[in-house]
Amino acid sequence: MTATTMPAAPAGHQSLNLRGQTLRTPVLGAIAVGAVALTALLYLVTSIHSRIQFVLIVLLLFSIGQTVASVLVEGARRARDRLVTTLVYGSFLLALIPLVAVLVAVIERGAKRLDMDFLTHSMRGIGARDAGGGIYHAIIGTLEQVGLASLMAVPFGLLVAVYLVEYGTGRISRVISFFVDVLTGLPSIIAGLFVLGFWILALGQPFTGFAGSLALTILMVPVVVRSAEEMLKLVPDELREASYALGVARWRTILKIVVPTALPGIVTGVMLAVARVAGETAPLLLTVFGDNSINMNPFDGEQSALPLYIYSQAGQPQQVAIDRAWAAALTLIIIIMLLNLIARFVASRAKVK
Amino acid sequence: MATRIEISGLTAYYGKFKAVADVNLTIEPKSVTAFIGPSGCGKSTVLRTLNRMHEVLPGARVEGKVLLDGEDLYGPGVDPVNVRRNVGMVFQRPNPFPTMSIYENVIAGLKLNGVRKKSLLDERVEESLKGANLWDEVKDRLNRPGAGLSGGQQQRLCIARAIAVEPQVLLMDEPCSALDPISTLAIEDLIQKLRSSYTIVIVTHNMQQASRVSETTAFFSLEKTGDPGRLVEYSTTSQIFSNPKEKRTEDYISGRFG
Ligand SMILES: Nc1ncnc2c1ncn2[C@@H]1O[C@H](COP(=O)(O)OP(=O)(O)OP(=O)(O)O)[C@@H](O)[C@H]1O
Ligand SMILES: [Mg+2]
């Protein structure tokens, strides 16, 4: 025995009992198998046959079985812990189901038609029953319309957010905040109707890609403002004060300290906004109009766009058109994912390593 | 290159709340002055009026005069940005800029004020980091993030950042309160080194620290919560700690209240 050994607990001292009992993995496995078996039995004798319900019932039975076993072996506190853990993981898996299902469905059906030929041709001269055709014109349209909308909405939205966080006090900023909230809830077709009524009908402008990007801008601005505002608010005041204390003017502090600190979050918010408007159909329907041939110029003449293309193709009875719609949907998802990756890459380059 | 600070009739408000009232004191050039007193008596507030950081908070305002070599900081036409270039500040919690490397942190003040010349910047980084006793620890990793340093190193980085713009006066608000004894010692050594070129004002809750680093001490206190804080006694540090004139100073020093 060394000198550092603790003296033995005095006689009669109650053991601390730090270990407690634990449910063993085989027991949990048995409960899981039991839950599946019971559910299968239920499916045999009753007329339920939904796959989602199967998963839910298994989950429910497993939680019940686990809780009962745990109360018996481990005690109530551990049982509660296990129950909540199961619920949290279960909800996570449930939330994944629609996401995975959508992705699988789109990839399964979209991959069929998605090839170079499809990406580099327009629908010009393709008849209703023809198998060929492509989405080149729609990709051009979407990129230009969303690009123009971002060019207008992102700087404007950022400036508004900077105003609200750094300068805004009192009534003006409350009024702006209110309008941003109203805009956030604006149904997208209203944005389209507004551009149609104001820009196209009242001012006599033609249907163009630019008219579409105006409508998209209206939808993007509130998303950019709200997310940038939240991110700017997270920048601690200590950093602003540190900068002021160095004799740096306020606007430079905002430009060089506050915005860079919030940049990764702002980029994420902007990407959310881009992703949101890239999939908008209704406002484009009223402003861009849709066209089957390639039009590179967003300021002159009708254009197409991926959501419009999907909408018009999916509405047709021929299988060839429906296949084209799926392939276009897959393309849209890929484009948004690529934009996201690029934006994240750019934002991460701005950080010190 | 150091500057005399004369504070007269200084009263500071947060909105309607009068935080400190009627402070008068003169701080000699190239000296270290300690502000001590119980929590909430307005030490930080007075300190922040010396580089016009007080008014950064909404609703905060100041009455009275602060003369820097005879010129009133609160006079008409004075630009707070220019004031702060001459009066640097180190905060209680180390606050390096998280998006910047160690190198960029040190020259942030210069760079943000438009200095571009690489040779000058390089020189100033080495000078300031050496001045802040940090050079040896970081010279091999100047391009790593400033936020990756230990708390004590971060605080010395912030001091380097403050002295890189070559201010006349250096204000420190409890610069050691988040640090371990070794880092505290490093900072106290640093203050000894800096006193030859700067006028330094330091707020501290640590009486030993005040007696170790400062030659003059100002004791602030307040009657009861809700009242404004006031300057109770201002004298040489040895006088304050060995033979204070005021009963309240003595009580505070000897730990009988506060
Ligand atoms: N941002 C603020 N808004 C409103 N009141 C404030 C603010 N900062 C400080 N005060 C008040 O002003 C008074 C003086 O505060 P100050 O921070 O100067 O005290 P202090 O002496 O530095 O205290 P400590 O030693 O705890 O740092 C306190 O009553 C405090 O509640
Ligand atoms: Mg304080």
TrEMBL record, chain B:
InterPro entries in the cross-refs: AAA+_ATPase, ABC_transporter-like_ATP-bd, ABC_transporter-like_CS, P-loop_NTPase, PstB-like
Domain ABC transporter: 5-253
Keyword terms: ATP-binding, Nucleotide-binding, Translocase, Transport
GO molecular function, one term: ATP hydrolysis activity
Keyword Transport: yes
Keyword field contains Transferase: no
One GO CC annotation: membrane
Gene Ontology biological process: phosphate ion transmembrane transport
Listed Pfam families: ABC_tran
UniProt-recorded name of the protein: Phosphate transport system ATP-binding protein
Native species: Parafrankia irregularis
High-level lineage: Bacteria, Bacillati, Actinomycetota, Actinomycetes, Frankiales
